[in-house]
């Protein structure tokens, strides 16, 4: 695994339906506050963000840096709604992310197509290993 410093000094990665921080933060804002999305999150630096939106549903994962600590945000929705008001950061440790990548199905999505395991493994310096069985 890469060091904390190596990880936070990389170029940010935006996958699937996102290509910049404005899109990430805007997706989690209600339509009334979307214009202020960047100013509402000016202390947060996105490191890795992925949002898949297939099959009329969506799933998102964001890793960001704030005050020298790593946080993650998970969001999902059905066809009726979006990610609005789901910005609920949780502090995350690199060892925890590594464990979920190596031993679990983190980043392997077969419904909303929010597949990012290979890319996040490369970003964090973790060996890529697919754990989810494919049923099709």
List strands and helices in order, with pairings.
Blueprint: H1 4-8, E1 13-16, H2 21-28, H3 37-40, E2 45-52, E3 58-66, E4 69-77, E5 90-91, H4 94-103, H5 117-124
Parallel strand pairs: 1-2
Antiparallel strand pairs: 2-3, 3-4, 4-5
Short description:
The chain is α+β, with helices and mostly antiparallel strands.
How would you describe this protein?
- This protein has a five-stranded mixed β-sheet, covered by helices on one side.
- It has one domain.
- The protein is built from five helices and five strands; from the N terminus they run αβααββββαα.
- Strand 2 and strand 3 form a beta hairpin.
- The protein is of the alpha+beta class.
- The longest helix is centred in the C-terminal third of the chain and has 10 residues, at 94-103.
- The chain starts with a helix and ends in a 12-residue tail after the last helix.
- It has helices at 4-8, 21-28, 37-40, 94-103, 117-124; strands spanning 13-16, 45-52, 58-66, 69-77, 90-91.
- The mean pLDDT is 87.
